[in-house]
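SEQUENCE, STRUCTURE TOKENS:
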Amino acid sequence: MGNITMTVIFLAVYRCFGACAAIPIISSSSDESALLAFKATITQDPNNILQKNWTEGTPFCNWIGITCSHRHQRVKALNLSSKGLKGTIAKEVGNLSFLISLDISNNNFQGNIPDELGHLRRLRGLYMQLNELSGQIPESFGFLNRIQELFLYNNSLSGPIPPAIFNISSFQVIDLMYNFLRGSLPMDICHNLPNLESLNVSFNQLEGQIPASFSRCSEIKFLALTSNEFTGSIPGKLGNLSKLEQLYLAINNLTGELPSTIFNISALTILAAPYNMISGSLPMTFARKPRGLKYCIYL
């Protein structure tokens, strides 16, 4: 009986050991490897920041642009904004599993955004604006379930906006202005965006109708759809956006009448909708009431 008991215990321990051995060990060394891989894809570094400062044998938590967590000594922020860097984004950046903020804005990064960035499940802010990035916005961005701010404006991104990003309830700001994005916005775009405060997709090549479900983005203050190929009428339900301050609809193919409900938004200060085919006039009730609206062009 004793031998049987010992055999059972041995097998249990053996199986546990085998299972534990299969789990990859994640340590700070993986962060250093990811950063060095990022450095290796940089072709221009006019200030020699990475060349002189990002060197093996020195603690990477002391490297320029790196902020580490005190507890784990893992990279939680990478900020190399406005450093004149040129190159591509190494896929190994997706191994920085503790990363909360990634800012490489206002540089000269080229090529595609790696799908591996969708592995950064702790990420809250992604700032890649003012670069020369091309290709599509990765579908994997739909896995960034803690992200709050996404800035990709002033690049050369193309293709559709992945619908999955509009299902991330933590989003507060999405700015995709000045790209070559095509396709349409999901008709249920605001069903899962309770915290969205700002959406800017101006100066792209988006088409289709303006979703009436924008009315469910109850926290939105800034909505910009300028210079696309939107058609159809302006949804009257936009008048339900009580916190909306700025609405930009200019240079599209919109038709019908400008909904009078929009003028019920007391927070509205800017309404710009010229260069469409819409008609209508200011409602008399609007003209009689003092409002904060200071810029209104719609014919």
